[in-house]
Amino acid sequence: MSIKSTSRYGVRSNNRNYSSTRPNTEQNTTNNHNGVMIPFKSQPAMTPYAPSWDFNLAEKYFTTEEIDCSRLAEFLLSKESEILAINDYEVNDCGTKVGKDSTTARYLYYNVLEWENEEVQKLKKGISDFHAQYFMRTMNAETYPNINCRCWLNILRKGQRIHKHLHGVGCMAYLSGHFTVACKDTKTIYVNPYEAASDEEILRRVANGEQLDLSNALYPADNVVGKMTLFPNFVPHLTTEHTSNEPRITLAFEITPFESLPGQKRPGETELVKL
Predict the structure, then answer these.
(1) CA atoms within 13 Å, Cβ hemisphere of 1
(2) Total domains present in the chain
């Protein structure tokens, strides 16, 4: 794969095929391993001051041969105590409300993609390839930028959920992602950036199956083992409550075409991993 551009960040040329399939309401996307786009587009504004949005989420399902989630889950759980032992620096759950005693709250001080593990290496390739597909599809481009990535571990026990939050809104905002490793019957709900409803109201609407409007104001996505999701940093999201006795294990990540993420680097903060 060749470097083709001299723009402010390196750009790779396209020498791979990718799917431009768009989902429909009757399609069972859990069988789609090429990736599908979930469009978020507001209705036409009826006044000059009405808010508008137009962006895409993308979902892709990985087979066991591509990423063995059972083996990955076992490995990640074995790292939990090591992560929780990081107590030398300030921890912050960033509005997720999973608490300071969590792997999530220590996300700055480790990077899953640095760990030597066969399934983690497969995950790195999966993120890189899916980003290329997403970028070229959404930008209608034949090249895509080099990227760097931070990846962290979310573990929920029975009764926990992740509260509404987002990953970035500044001028350097790019893309975030999720990968479901082990889960039973939860959803991640993606919300349009202007939605001011509380978590409780959003969860009530989803539980009641309410159709808000025709503009994809929110998207409740089933957390299916092996599913990867990409979305812009500014998209708020939350989860439903985890009700299983088995831990819910997911990986979250941020990717950027820059060598570092916005903001001053904190003591103990790990470097991004180049993909």
Answers:
(1) 16
(2) 1
